[in-house]
Every structure is written in C-alpha cells, then in structure tokens.
Amino acid sequence: MKKLAIFASGGGSNAQKIHEYLQEHPFAKIDCIVVNNLNAGVISKAKNWDCEVINISKNDFYKDSKISNLLISRGVDLVVLAGFLWLIPQHLLQAFPQKIINIHPALLPKYGGRGMYGMNVHKAVFDAKERTSGITIHTIDEEYDKGQIIFQKSVEIESCKSPEEIADIVLKIEHENFAKTIHKYLQK
Ligand code: GRF
To answer: Is 122 a catalytic residue?
Structure first.
C-alpha cells in the first residue's frame, strides 16, 4: 500500500476529499499530514484518520533535511500539496524527484507564480474576464507553479458574477479530480 504525506495548511477540504476517496479505493493510505500552522483546518479533520499530524516551523523546513529524512524514514511514496504555500526546498525535491505534486486553482501557465494563490487567482481571472478557468495538477520543481503538468480540467465561468463564484466552481472540480489523479499517477 502506497503512503501519502499531505501538506495542507488551509481549510483542508482537498485533504478531506482524498481521505474519503481512499475509503472506497484503498490504493494508498495517508501516512501523515504536514502543516505549517496550528490553525490549519485539516488538523481537526484528520483526528479520526489514523495518521500523524506534523507541524513544521519555517526554520526546520528550510534549514536542514529534517523533514525529508523524516518522510523517507516513514516510507512515504508521494508528497501531495493541497493548500501549502511555502516554496519546496531543494532537499525535499531531491528526496522525492517527480514525487511531489500540487493542485493549483487555475489553468497554468496562466495565473501562476509567486503571490498567485487562493482568492488572488480567482480575482485575477475575474478581472481578466476569462470565459473559462479550471485546475492544474502538476509536479513541483524549484519555481512556483512551473513543474510538469499531470492533469488539467477547464470549466465555464462566463455566468460567474464574482471571484467567489469562480472559487466555488473551481474548488468543486478540484474535489472531483485530485484523488483520482493521484491514483492514476501512482499507477504509472
Ligand atoms: C485549493 O484551492 C488549491 O487549489 C490550492 O489551495 C486550496 C486549498 O484548499 N492549492 P483546501 O485547503 O483543500 O480547502
């Protein structure tokens, strides 16, 4: 059984959906949840998931290979970023080559890069009067949102009257596709 480490420091809804998917498709287990703040919504969600929650400080994340060594020693196969904004350090990229994936709430390469996260993305898409937006699931490298694209799905947003409406539609397709994509990716 494959082991996932989910890095999630936002609301945790994608982590929740991955957990639910794994109940029906037990191809993997969530070995640990990594957060960078104790207010992360995923912490209370994960209480009943039989996995460890690891809170990492910025210093520990960047200073040495502590987190990489920990994940290797736990036998983690894939690192899944689901609402984790810190740039991934070199030691972690080297420890998990092509094995760190992220979900981005827009159709990269548009609306990606530093500062393009959360509502910033949806506001930019709305202001640009885009007719479609969507999601991108991609591997991680040294730059924000520049890795290899694994999966994209677009969605019509012409009828959306606000960035919030776009956010709702996009999050729904994240929930429908992230776990499935992880499943396929690990079968390769
Ligand atoms: C998602 O919109 C995802 O695309 C982005 O961060 C958000 C996380 O949402 N990377 P949640 O914490 O899973 O609810």
So the answer is: no
What whole-number distance in Å separates Cα of residue 124 and Cα of residue 139? Answer: 23
- Which amino acid would we find at residue 117? Y
Check if 101 has its Cβ closer than 6 Å to any atom of ligand 1. Answer: no
Atom number, ligand 1, closest to the C-alpha of residue 167: 2
Q: Which of helix, strand or coil describes residue 27? A: coil
Distance CA 40, CA 49 (A): 16
Please give the Cα distance from 6 to 100 (Å, whole number).
Answer: 10
* Beta bridge pairs of residue 79: 5, 100
- Dist CA 21 CA 15 (whole Å): 10
Q: Of 178, 104, 181, nearest to 147 (Cα)?
A: 104
Q: What does the pLDDT look like over 160-177, one tens digit per residue?
A: 999 999 999 999 999 999
| The ligand 1 atom nearest the CA atom of 11 | 12
pLDDT digit string, tens, across residues 113-127: 989 999 999 999 999
The catalytic residue among 104, 138, 175, 183 is 104
Q: Supply the pLDDT for residue 28.
A: 97
Pair type for strands 149-156 and 78-81? unpaired
Over residues 23-69, the pLDDT tens digits come to: 999 999 999 999 999 999 999 999 999 999 999 999 999 988 999 99
CATH code 3.30.1360.180 for 1-97: no
